[in-house]
């Protein structure tokens, strides 16, 4: 089933035409990888999915971007509600300078959950989903900045999952990490794809082949091809 659909989507950074007539469907509960050379619009399209580009002055969007049957650039969409449904993880792990616990509890608290038992439960479930619980369960009050980069990135994934999103966006989420931490995140992405729609930007063709169900090729602001990853990578 399709969860995201771009129809003739164009994005301009002032005069610069960054996305050119993108037509694309993204299936739910699967991993879609965006690949292509640097500067070709992968990150721009990813950020368009949670309206992060709105914050950049002079950005103009034409066309439709439909998520769960709603055109997210139509007037009546509430950006806060959208961001609750569409979580994001960045290239550099960016935990808040707070405890591990408070990082994960941040989103739920923001959305009004105050009950301690409920928050404990969400923190535990989210850290388990992010394959981090066993490593941190005995020191949840430690600073998030005291754990390794790979653990911080999994913490950022837990923080994103804690508000129960449908979609998780990952913008080169492993490119600042060592190979072992990268493999852990790739395994995690594969574990999560039954429950979440994951859209990831990567510059690594092998990573796209390893973890994605669908691969989208970008060039100069255009989507030049997209298909099942197995099909795309099976022909030599
Ligand atoms: P990719 O993720 O494929 O490396 P981006 O989506 O980051 O590419 O960038 C696509 C193009 O848009 C690049 O030419 C980049 O320089 C330009 N661009 C990105 N962000 C901005 C911005 N805020 N203002 C102007 N141009 C931008
Ligand atoms: P302390 O350092 O005081 O022993 P911890 O670091 O063990 O505290 O725990 C920090 C927070 O995490 C506490 O507020 C606690 O309620 C919560 N917590 C501890 N164990 C669990 C658990 N099994 N599930 C969810 N939350 C927990």
TrEMBL record:
Subcellular location: Cell inner membrane
Topology versus the membrane: Peripheral membrane protein
InterPro entries given in the database record: AAA+_ATPase, ABC_transporter-like_ATP-bd, ABC_transporter-like_CS, P-loop_NTPase, PstB-like
GO BP field: phosphate ion transmembrane transport
Pfam short name (any one): ABC_tran
Keyword Cytoplasm in annotation: no
Domain ABC transporter: 4-236
Keyword Nucleotide-binding: yes
GO CC aspect terms: plasma membrane
Domain of life where this protein originates: Bacteria
Keywords carried by this UniProt record: ATP-binding, Cell membrane, Membrane, Nucleotide-binding, Phosphate transport, Translocase, Transport
CDD domains with a match to the protein in the record: ABC_PstB_phosphate_transporter (cd03260)
SMART domains, per database record: AAA
GO MF terms held by the record: ATP binding; ATP hydrolysis activity; phosphate transmembrane transporter activity
Described purpose of this protein according to its UniProt entry: Part of the ABC transporter complex PstSACB involved in phosphate import. Responsible for energy coupling to the transport system.
Name listed for the protein in its UniProt record: Phosphate import ATP-binding protein PstB 3
Organism from which the protein derives: Paenibacillus montaniterrae
Gene: pstB3
């Amino acid at each position: 089933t399709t969860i995201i659909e771009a129809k003739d989507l164009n994005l301009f950074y002032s005069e610069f035409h960054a996305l050119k007539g993108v037509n694309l469907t993204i299936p739910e509960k699967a991993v879609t990888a965006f690949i292509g050379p640097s500067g070709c619009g992968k990150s721009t399209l990813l950020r368009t999915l949670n309206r992060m580009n709105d914050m950049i002055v002079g950005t103009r969007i034409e066309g439709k971007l439909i998520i769960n049957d709603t055109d997210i650039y139509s007037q009546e969409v509430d950006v806060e509600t959208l961001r609750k449904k569409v979580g994001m993880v960045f290239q550099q792990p960016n935990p808040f300078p707070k405890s591990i616990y408070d990082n994960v509890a941040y989103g739920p608290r923001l959305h009004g959950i105050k009950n301690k038992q409920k928050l404990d439960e969400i923190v535990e479930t989210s850290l388990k989903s992010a394959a981090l619980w066993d490593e941190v369960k005995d020191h949840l009050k430690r600073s998030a900045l005291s754990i390794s980069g790979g653990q911080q990135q999994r913490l950022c994934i837990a923080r994103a999952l804690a508000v129960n999103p449908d979609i998780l966006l990952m913008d080169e989420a492993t490119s600042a990490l060592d190979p072992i931490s990268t493999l852990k995140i790739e395994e995690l992405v594969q574990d999560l794809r039954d429950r979440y729609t994951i859209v990831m930007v990567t510059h690594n063709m092998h990573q796209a082949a390893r973890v994605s169900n669908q691969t989208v090729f970008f060039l100069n602001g255009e989507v030049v091809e997209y298909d099942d990853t197995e099909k795309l990578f099976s022909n030599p």
